[in-house]
Amino acid sequence: MKEQKKIILISLVTGIVLMAAKFSAYFLTSSNFILTDAAESIVNVVASSFAFFSIYLSALPRDENHPYGHGKIEYFSVFIEGGLIMIAAVIIIVKSIYSMLYPHDVHELLTGAIIIGVTGVINGCLGYYMIHKGKILPSITLDADGRHLVTDMVTSFGLVAGLLLIHFTGILWLDSGLSILVGLYILFSGYKLLRKSVAGLMDEADFLILTKVLQVLNDKRKEEWIDIHNLRAQKYGNELHIDCHLTLPNYFDLNKVHEEVSLVDKMINTEAGVKTELFIHSDPCLPECCHYCSMPNCPIRSEPKRIEIEWTMDKVMPNKKHFAS
């Protein structure tokens, strides 16, 4: 968590400096187009401030009131960031429409373009770095903040191109017209962050992670593991929680059951690439399982194995053994 805090702090300080530079460019040029970027930089600073707090809170240990930890706060951070971006976009669009109806002169556009271009390069470099670190650590907050900065870089480069176009053509309404287009793009970016945060808060299944877990289970599958069902996953910050039922031969004693369950736990944590807490309920096999059970020399087998069932999403997620499919 110390590394995450350090990265967010760098993002916060950088955001404050770049915000000052962008507003200086706005006051120099009186361009609504530049104001779109300056207004979004306020969101960068506020979002980074909340992200810093959310990372601090998510690092706190579990307690009686939060038995799964405080990792969900990161989704609130992303929600607030997305909401602020959308508010900024609406303000930009309204201001640009007003300026299109009541135009005013703009000046020093080349100087403004240089300032915005430099801030765009800095935001882009920092954004890609944060996305990279967000995947390694992993941290949804770093990833969201990084993607926001990359979005800011894209809008800044578009802004530079627009400013040059206005400068060389002298068409003043382009300043407000292009601002509206950028505002719509920023609005869509904010919506995507909101969608991602709501998905996390509602415990929407992360099929990318589940597919990786299933690949590990299929690759390392043992004959004793007759089937896995009722598989569910939740994310709390950078931790994954998985519930599932594991069907084992009904003649296994408690020590053997514990051994197999622990092996599944260790295997997923070692090879799935994400820190995982597993709650595995062990089920005894039934005679109806025999037709897909691979257990050799089974003393209670009622019929020979007839089919091979691959553990796919549609097989492992329902709360029923595979014979009931």
UniProtKB/TrEMBL annotation:
<dbReference type="InterPro" id="IPR027470">
    <property type="entry name" value="Cation_efflux_CTD"/>
</dbReference>
<dbReference type="InterPro" id="IPR036837">
    <property type="entry name" value="Cation_efflux_CTD_sf"/>
</dbReference>
<feature type="transmembrane region" description="Helical">
    <location>
        <begin position="149"/>
        <end position="170"/>
    </location>
</feature>
<dbReference type="InterPro" id="IPR050291">
    <property type="entry name" value="CDF_Transporter"/>
</dbReference>
<keyword id="KW-0472">Membrane</keyword>
<dbReference type="GO" id="GO:0015093">
    <property type="term" value="F:ferrous iron transmembrane transporter activity"/>
</dbReference>
<feature type="transmembrane region" description="Helical">
    <location>
        <begin position="109"/>
        <end position="129"/>
    </location>
</feature>
<protein>
    <submittedName>
        <fullName>Cation diffusion facilitator family transporter</fullName>
    </submittedName>
</protein>
<feature type="transmembrane region" description="Helical">
    <location>
        <begin position="176"/>
        <end position="194"/>
    </location>
</feature>
<comment type="similarity">
    <text>Belongs to the cation diffusion facilitator (CDF) transporter (TC 2.A.4) family.</text>
</comment>
<feature type="domain" description="Cation efflux protein transmembrane">
    <location>
        <begin position="8"/>
        <end position="202"/>
    </location>
</feature>
<dbReference type="Pfam" id="PF16916">
    <property type="entry name" value="ZT_dimer"/>
</dbReference>
<feature type="transmembrane region" description="Helical">
    <location>
        <begin position="7"/>
        <end position="29"/>
    </location>
</feature>
<dbReference type="InterPro" id="IPR058533">
    <property type="entry name" value="Cation_efflux_TM"/>
</dbReference>
<dbReference type="InterPro" id="IPR027469">
    <property type="entry name" value="Cation_efflux_TMD_sf"/>
</dbReference>
<keyword id="KW-0812">Transmembrane</keyword>
<feature type="transmembrane region" description="Helical">
    <location>
        <begin position="73"/>
        <end position="97"/>
    </location>
</feature>
<dbReference type="GO" id="GO:0015341">
    <property type="term" value="F:zinc efflux antiporter activity"/>
</dbReference>
<dbReference type="GO" id="GO:0006882">
    <property type="term" value="P:intracellular zinc ion homeostasis"/>
</dbReference>
<keyword id="KW-0813">Transport</keyword>
<feature type="domain" description="Cation efflux protein cytoplasmic">
    <location>
        <begin position="223"/>
        <end position="285"/>
    </location>
</feature>
<dbReference type="GO" id="GO:0015086">
    <property type="term" value="F:cadmium ion transmembrane transporter activity"/>
</dbReference>
<dbReference type="GO" id="GO:0005886">
    <property type="term" value="C:plasma membrane"/>
</dbReference>
<keyword id="KW-1133">Transmembrane helix</keyword>
<feature type="transmembrane region" description="Helical">
    <location>
        <begin position="41"/>
        <end position="61"/>
    </location>
</feature>
<dbReference type="Pfam" id="PF01545">
    <property type="entry name" value="Cation_efflux"/>
</dbReference>
<dbReference type="InterPro" id="IPR002524">
    <property type="entry name" value="Cation_efflux"/>
</dbReference>
